[in-house]
Amino acid sequence: MKKKLTIILLSLLIGCGVTGFLVYQNRVFLFENVQMGDPDPIISQKPANFSLSPLFIYQDNFTLEWEESEHCNNYSLYHYHMEITSINESITLLDEGLTNNSYKFYLYPSGVHFFIVVAFNDNGNTSSNCVELWITEDIYLSITPYESDDGNFTLEWTPLNQIDHYELYRGDNPITEINESHIPIHKNLNKTTYNITGYGNGEYHFAILGINTYEKGFNITSNSASGKVLLYPSSFTLNVTYFGNGSVQLNWTESNRAINYSVYLIYNFTNQYKIMEGLTNLSCSFNFLNHSEYNGNYKFFIFASNEYGSKQSNIISLEINDLKEPPSSSGDDDDDTPISPETISVIIIIIVIGSSISVGGILFYLYKKGKLKFPSKKGKIKQKKREASLK
Asked: Which pTM value belongs to this model?
């Protein structure tokens, strides 16, 4: 009897030990409803490990994708502004109960963001890796002026909080991606403006590279901004003084890079004349009586020229009233000047000659056509005898 009790107690102890070991290893066998010949009994376990990765569409539009976790019923997505090492109340739950393996974001705010996905089933949960994303804005670069007449430009661009410093590059063509063919102008800018001076004639293209040097840094390339340098003569100002009786004095300020000047005149808004050219001084005199003796509106302007082109001055308008009145062009003027007798005689002679020529021409034409006949000598004699018999 004692021997049987000893065997029973030993069996119970061995069974309890085996069961405890299996529970500790999370390998509890469910023997309920298991029949002979079935495969291995179902093992209850948490969702399997899986990985999370980002798929960028365009900066603030992106998609998070993750691998399928075996034994998973659904997923939850979390966000934080720092690396996520565990799920707690400070972590933001973005969505839960997800059954797909991706999640799309649109117009997400700029900055650094951390995401993690947790897979769930009835036996527990498993977390993915934590993904860090930098959502950035565009750098917009502008240049003024577009056409520079002195070789100077001002570049300005929008600032970004995530950028440590900026680099400025120049190219011969519009820049889409900065590479070794582009010339670095400045590689450590901590401001968002830059002045360019002393460029010669030509077209130039610029781009800004925003540099982030954090642990997982990134670079952002701006749009390409273009500018032209056209070293024409610079702007200048004309002044005109009228002294009366057609006398005019023109003075103008110097135009940088000008080689010479040409003076132009417009009379009564229609006729334009180049009255002087090749001038190297900054003044000249002019008298209307050398070109016109009539009152009216006169406009003056000057072109400063060099080998690259010309620059026009301002236009000065003068209303002149102390000269002669211009002749009328209406055609209805009354002219009381008498016509001389010699002129009348010439007119009469011309009329008579013209009429005679016309009549002669008509008679000759009728004669040639046989429609006009002249009487012969025999006809004239018969005509006289007939007239005599009648008497």
From this structure: 0.44
